Amino acid sequence: MNELPVGRRVAQWRVRRNMTQQQFADHLGKSKSWVDKVERGVRRLEQVSNLRMVAETLRIDLEVLLAGSAGESARPETATTGVDAVLAALARYHVEPPARPPDVAEVRTRLAHAEQSYRHARYPELLVLLPGLVDAVRAARALRPGRATDGLLARGYGLVALVLLKVDRPEVAWLAADRAVAAAQVTKDPWVAAAATVPLAQALRHGGRRRAAMEAAAVAAHRLLPGRSPGTPLATSSTPGDDRSADPALLATLLLQAGLAAAGRGDGRAARDLLDRAGRAAREAGAEGGGAAVEAARVVAEAALGEVTAATVRHERLVAGDEWRWLPPEHRAAYLLDAARAYVLDGNLLCAGRAVLEAERTAHGEVHHRPAVRPLVAVVARSPAAPPALTRLAATLHVT
């Protein structure tokens, strides 16, 4: 993930913390030989538990250990190795079976951990984890075929798609999302298929295929509705521990994606109708943050439709409340960057800069590890009205 191997960075940070190899080993509960091998690159740090333990002992964020030195942010080209590894995993059509049958519960736990990392915008960590995780899920499905592993495969490919979008690879993200939908359709469960359609719609939107995104999301949402009488739950799971989506806000999320795609096409009427329906579904679901997610989508849609003043007013009303803080850090930070773009369009560079800095505080990786953020920071930082901290951020991101 950087010019220096992880082991070399461990050694550099250990020296900065004034620890000998023996002292560092004692803190970790490892041997001095283990530390020496890690620092020389003889032993690779692959387990997430070991990576976290090392970062905590060195008193640094895991992203710093994976992506570079303190106070720095990875240049766009430093993500190339991680992305190439993910692409290589997607291109492995024949995965060698493991020595022992895979533990499906363990694979599910690894996938849940990776999904949680995504919600916290830990993209460098995910680029390290995803190749092995994709192989593990595919091996589990090959040796233990069935609805459970099909559902895991759909979730795994969907997560790959979302991460590839963050590193500005929409075309490959669309490929991964398409595989997610194909795996989900094998389950014949409309809820699993609907969950897989969310990253597909995002990939299509980011790739400029907004009509296809709108149609895919709207069709998936429609398939959740037949036969459902008012007042019945939006989703149920008949088999404990299966991979059917039990998220009652899934219908709202699909309608939200369709609405954003419609706004991107300039179809204000369809966008407002779809977002209104998303709002009703979110209220029915009663999920924490659901209403805020719809309001955030309205801000993005209004900006896309050229209604930037209305968008910024709505944004200020949204963030003045508490509900939006229920959204995951990744979602909040990504939204704040969209709000910053709306402020730029409205000519308010001071508020745009504040939104960018708040996004950085909310989810560091969303600002420091997304190539698409750099042009926004460059534009805001050049303005005399930008907050002083924006100049430092621009220098860190190498966009000055």
UniProtKB/TrEMBL annotation:
Region ranges (Disordered): 225-244
InterPro entries, per the entry: Cro/C1-type_HTH, Lambda_DNA-bd_dom_sf
CDD domains reported for this sequence: HTH_XRE
PROSITE patterns per UniProt: HTH_CROC1
Residues of the HTH cro/C1-type domain: 10-65
One Pfam family linked to the record: HTH_31
The protein's name: Helix-turn-helix transcriptional regulator
